[in-house]
Amino acid sequence: MKARRIVFIILALAIFMSFNIQGGMCKQKQEPKQASGGDLYNEIELFSDTISIIKTDYVKDVGPKELIYGALKGMLSSLDSHSQFMDPDTYNEIKVETTGKFGGLGIEITIKDGLLTIVSPIEGTPAFNAGLKANDKIVKIDGEITRDITLISAVKKLRGEPGTKVTLTILREKAESIFDVTVTRDIIRIESVKRAEILEDGIGYIRITEFQENTSKDLGTALEKLKKDGMNSLILDLRNNPGGLLSVSVDVAEKFIEKGKMIVSTKGRMKSQNMEFKARDPKPYMDFPIVVLVNEGSASASEIVAGALQDHKRGILLGTKTFGKGSVQTVIPLRDGSALRLTTAQYFTPSGRSINGEGINPDIMIELEEKTAEKDEMKEGKKEEKKEDIFEKLEKEPKEGLTPPEDKKGDEKKSDSKKTEEKKEEVKKKSEIIYDSQLLRAIDLLKGLKVYKTISG
Asked: Which NCBIfam families would you find in this protein's record (predicted)?
């Protein structure tokens, strides 16, 4: 009991000191903190009991820092999939925008339903070229099961020297298959505004792959060029766009929304976290109809733009429901060099709809029709496996690599020849519109709007 009391006194003193040190930051929330302070103080005794029992009875001696760090990791991860405790080494890794170059895969990841999930592969990156898709679940990284993995740990495992390889075991629920994909890391260079062109009949097409610092400027240049080329309507493609900078999403949306109108708001528990972002562009493009293409890989900043255009009836959303990533994380450094990554606010569309966990439903729901064997092999009505069942199944399976569904019919190796790859890319570009059912429907929709405008006078 004496050991327990000592631990309890130390913890109580630490909390008291913490409240005093952070007092300047907590003035706005002083009353609620006092109201809950007593309850917290009472619950700390349970925590101190547990630490005392571990210190005296656990089979191995565990240092106090290791215990406290472990408790903090569990505490933060229990809040939501984005909040995390970072030890000093982990914090330093994300804090330093490394001066040396590191290799990546070109995917945005999150934890969804307890599984490490790809939000979206970015077009033109190793992950995209390897055939990874939005909502693919990464259940193993180089043979190690990802059960209970944190986002920071996953990023550390996926990142590495350019030219090195990483093998991902993928669960693709729609195809009801588990297979291995080996991806070669590379320096990720992203061209955020791609394929700005006139498709047909004055219909412009612009694809935005990510929201970076130069995206708004590049979009403005693309719009001016298309206007000169005779654009009278626009398809804005935000599919498989994992997001990016909040400020840039506002800059993009305001190009199509009247000055002074709301684009997005953030709401948290503190007044300083409640913000409104309104359109400021004095000359937005208001003279042509817009169709916005979205899918389950459209997340965060993409959802902000799509939600604003939909709420203001400035664009028609076509495709499938978006990912639903609409929360703000703040990194708060701690005294020993560690830090908290804490969810402090959520995004809301102009009409007040929450994006986080909800996603945005398109005005016209159209699934992408893919001409692959994968679609034909899908079985209807089969129950989805729980995440525990998936990991148990993986642990029982032999360690040999798993084959992607499209490779099962014949074990033919893919050619590494540059000529073959270039040919494939050429064919893909030429036939992209033919096989893109969502893009075709968007073109038809804009043509229909023009016909209706003509006959209605």
From this structure: prc
